[in-house]
Amino acid sequence: MSQERKYEGYVGVFDSGVGGISVLKELVRELPHENFVFFGDSANAPYGEKTPSQVRALSQAIVECMLDQGCKAIVIACNTATSAAAQMLREEYPDVPIVGVEPALKPAVLAPKHDHVLVMATPITVRLDKYRHLLARWDRDSNVISVPCTGLAARIEKGHLDEPDLIELLEWLVGDYRGKVDSVVLGCTHYPFIKPQIHKVLGDDVPFFDGGAGTARQTRRLLQEKNILNASDAPGDVVLSTSKDTPEERALYQWFFRRDIEG
Ligand code: DGL
């Protein structure tokens, strides 16, 4: 991204890569008149297998750039970056609304069938304190099984979601839980794009929970509170950008943005 203030008044949304587009879609649905600039750091993905300090440094550089370009608020559309960097970013930019995303464990545990809840997330997310605290709060009535899904976000980054190797990877990561869980928490923003594939491995009847819609509602609340909702009635602008700036990657981002996220 260049340094001119070309995104004055936009909401900046970022992720390690294409996954955050699942959150961006919820944001556009919830806030159709806002202008959004999305940045996916695909050149450095996956974040979930880096160290927390690497993720903090990458997140900090992205947010600094978005604010230099005029963004009025930031959405961290990444569970991993939220776990590693949200607190630091909020301390560093106390006047900027910064919204994060976290695994939707609470709605899964409060759902009618919740004896066995499977949480799929990146290795960093399940390891860090933020998730440990969430677990301590919500795992009392449910057996929560947390699975670090090494390699899964990186595989989704490649697209071609109908290829058999993706199903094989899912079989290896979570296949043992088929018929043994009541619901699945998608604790990484890449995973909503592969709901049909996860259903294929775990069975069609397991409901999914993810944090995208809640993050969009929280963004609306914060913008309202600060009185900085976009006043226009026109549909907002949505810009997709990536650190892996090739024509193929730009086309892949558009493909993910246009893709319907099923059930
Ligand atoms: N989409 C991200 C998340 O929600 C990160 C995936 C990755 O880069 O490992 O955690």
What are the salient characteristics of this protein?
binds D-glutamic acid; single chain; 5-stranded parallel sheet; 16% strand; alpha/beta; 263 residues; globular
How is this structure best described in words?
This protein has 263 residues and is of the alpha/beta class. Helices cover 43% and strands 16% of the residues. The chain is built from 11 helices and 9 strands. A 5-stranded parallel β-sheet has the order 4-3-1-2-9, sandwiched between helices. Strands 6-5-7-8 form a 4-stranded parallel β-sheet. α1 crosses α10 (212-225), α2 packs across α3 and α8 (164-174) crosses α9 (195-202). The longest helix is centred in the first third of the chain and has 17 residues, at 52-68. The radius of gyration is 18 Å and the shape is globular. The two termini are 34 Å apart. The model has no long low-confidence stretch (mean pLDDT 96). Bound molecules: D-glutamic acid. D-glutamic acid binds at residues 15-17, 19, 45-48, 78-80, 122, 125, 153, 188-190. D-glutamic acid is lined by residues 15-17, 19, 45-48, 78-80, 122, 125, 153, 188-190.
